[in-house]
Design goal:
InterPro entries: AB_hydrolase_3, AB_hydrolase_fold, GDXG_lipolytic_enzyme
CATH architecture: 3-Layer(aba) Sandwich
Strand order of the largest sheet: 1-4-5-13-12-11-10-8-9-7-6
Largest sheet: 11 strands, mixed
CATH superfamily: Alpha/Beta hydrolase fold, catalytic domain
CATH topology: Rossmann fold
Helix content: 25-40%
Oligomer: single chain
Number of strands: 13
CATH class: Alpha Beta
GO molecular function: hydrolase activity
Shape: globular
Keywords: Hydrolase
Distance between the termini: 33 Å
Number of helices: 10
Structural class: alpha/beta
Length: about 350
């Protein structure tokens, strides 16, 4: 008999086989979750007050949300004027960089432009953090938008909160640089860190949305190329199935205002062209996950990528990988980038910090 203190426990069933607005970073109840674990609904007063559930790694957890702070934050963002449509993809990229590069860095941190083996990157570090483990991070943006510069402030918050040296990788974007350019750049940046005499056991890789897909694909590529595997992978709202036929695209179309089937279809066409969408380096859910390091997967319950996250968790668990898969109630796509604006962003980043500390210790 299974006992979970003050929690309603529901057996799982198999899953069907960022913030972004049309892939643009902004500030802004699953029925089926994959797994082999449990879906846990917190019912205790303490759990509701803290906005979190508890459980062992390897379970899928639904966090009770949203907080009043998030709702107030969402209202403020909704009141902002909507900018006019960009004239081109490059104009949209420039807008994103111009706006997000103005966000202040976290106190006690710095961000330095580096050449990671020929790939541009930004290294975010804490003061006196030269002995911190490394967190190699891949930004979201549908493989066609955003940059390390746009994520610079978030990278410094990750460095401060996680006690890590965060390398934001400026991987090549489509359509100028289609698949597999992003994966190749990710591997180059990872090898650059290894060449600095950093053991793989002190490196975690991660990313959000398309960057979550790069993270998962890179793990597969490292094994196939016989590179040392990192200590773990962090996938936030990961886009890992570019076939784009998951049920959550339809089920959550009214609740996800930041990503959509149209966005996914357009972006995957630019990135892949006529390439096989079931290639595991394009859609990692179709890969062989045997022998992979631990994974941390976070996603919002109303996201169109809800099923992508669930399918990745299911596939990896089935191969024996230790997976922590957490579903946050009503959180938008890649809400963590708003850290520390509301408790759910803080909670998720705290979990990332704990994961990094655990797998690199």
């Amino acid at each position: 008999m299974l006992t979970v203190h003050n929690y309603a426990v529901i057996p799982q069933v198999a899953a069907p086989t960022t913030p972004m607005v049309n892939d643009t970073p902004t500030v802004a109840a699953p029925d089926v979750v994959a797994g082999g674990g449990l879906l846990i609904f917190a019912t205790s007063r303490r759990a509701r007050r803290r906005g979190r559930s508890s459980g062992r790694p390897g379970r899928t957890r639904l966090r009770l949300m949203p907080s009043t702070e998030f709702l107030a934050f969402q209202e403020r963002m909704a009141a902002n004027p909507v900018p006019p449509p960009p004239a081109s993809l490059q104009e949209l990229r420039d807008r994103i960089d111009a706006a997000m590069s103005q966000i202040p860095l976290a106190p006690g941190t710095r961000a330095d432009l580096v050449d990671a083996g020929g790939v541009s990157a930004i290294l975010c570090t804490r003061d006196d953090g030269e002995d911190d483990p490394w967190f190699v991070y891949f930004h979201g943006g549908g493989f066609r938008l955003a940059s390390a510069l746009a994520y610079r402030a978030f990278g410094t918050h990750l460095a401060a909160a996680c006690g890590a040296q965060v390398l934001l990788v400026d991987y090549s974007l489509a359509p100028e640089h289609p698949f597999p350019a992003a994966i190749n750049d990710a591997l180059t940046a990872y090898q650059w860190v290894l060449e600095r005499a950093v053991p793989a056991s002190r490196i975690v890789i991660g990313g959000d949305s398309a960057g979550g897909g790069v993270t998962a694909a890179m793990l597969l590529a490292c094994r196939d190329r016989k590179l040392p595997l990192p200590a773990g992978g962090v996938c936030l709202s990961p886009w890992v199935d570019l076939v784009n036929n998951a049920e959550s695209y339809a089920k959550n179309t009214s609740t996800d205002k930041l990503f959509s089937l149209t966005s996914a279809t357009d972006a995957s066409a630019l990135y892949l062209g006529d390439h096989d969408r079931r290639d595991p380096l394009a859609s990692p859910v179709y890969g062989n996950w045997g022998g992979m390091p631990p994974l941390l997967i976070h996603v919002g319950s109303g996201e169109v990528l809800l099923d992508d996250a669930a399918a990745l968790a299911h596939r990896a668990r089935a191969a024996g990988v230790r997976v922590t898969h957490e579903v946050y109630r009503e959180m938008p796509h890649v809400w963590q980038t708003n850290y520390p604006a509301f408790p759910e962003a803080i909670d998720s980043v705290d979990k990332i910090a704990a994961f990094i500390a655990d797998v690199t210790s």
